[in-house]
Amino acid sequence: xxxxxxxxxxxxxxxxxxxxxxxxxxxxxxxxxxxxxxxxxxxxxxxxxxxxxxxxxxxxxxxxxxxxxxxxxxxxxxxxxxxxxxxxxxxxxxxxxxxxxxxxxxxxxxxxxxxxxxxxxxxxxxxxxxxxxxxxxxxxxxxxxxxxxxxxxxxxxxxxxxxxxxxxxxxxxxxxxxxxxxxxxxxxxxxxxxxxxxxxxxxxxxxxxxxxxxxxxxxxxxxxxxxxxxxxxxxxxxxxxxxxxxxxxxxxxxxxxxxxxxxxxxx
Length: 267
Ligand SMILES: [Zn+2]
Known about the structure:
Elements: E1 2-6, H1 15-25, E2 29-33, H2 36-39, H3 43-53, E3 57-61, H4 74-87, E4 92-95, H5 106-122, E5 128-132, H6 143-159, E6 163-167, H7 168-171, H8 176-185, E7 189-193, H9 213-222, E8 228-231, H10 235-238, H11 243-260
Parallel strand pairs: 1-2, 1-8, 2-3, 3-4, 4-5, 5-6, 6-7, 7-8
The structure holds zinc ion.
């Protein structure tokens, strides 16, 4: 497992400082979330800083807040995100959307064509596309609806040759669903967005919330998961306006996860 955090955790911090903090705290790399400031940073600078500090960009997350100046339509954003990931040699691209639409409908056909175009951009590279599970924690779902959503994700990812990014906080519902999600998605998962939840607020630190993430990480260890574990803790939770607090919190979360991920399974 390689541990990473999203640059969105430290929104407002200059990218070189974010990478320096990742190195200082012992992370294996970062997930580059494309915010307006990242979008405005020449890729040569991202690459140079990453190399100089020895902090790789392990994944690149599609912009979530459109419109992003110069990044165009959702399709254009996917293409540019794929191109950026290839340019910084990130192994994983994180995409949203896609699955659950009416098969053969306008959105379904457009999304599949968009994925195919991204794959053309990535040809000859080792960068792979992944699709993140939709955020279900705001919407109460029956067990049947929950399972159907994940079945659609498994099928869509399989048909489009996509890997999966599993956001633990997005799973929603009772904590036991996290085990169900892992059982269904494990063979396709390359990136875990390791977020806890209060039940009403997502993007909490991994060690605080109702999701048993220590147990979950020990299951990943049991199953010899070798992919990424990425924190997406909200900047307000990290209190990023107080850098010492933020550094301490990120360091504690990393220690918690590394320890849980090396523990025997707590089944
Ligand atoms: Zn996520």
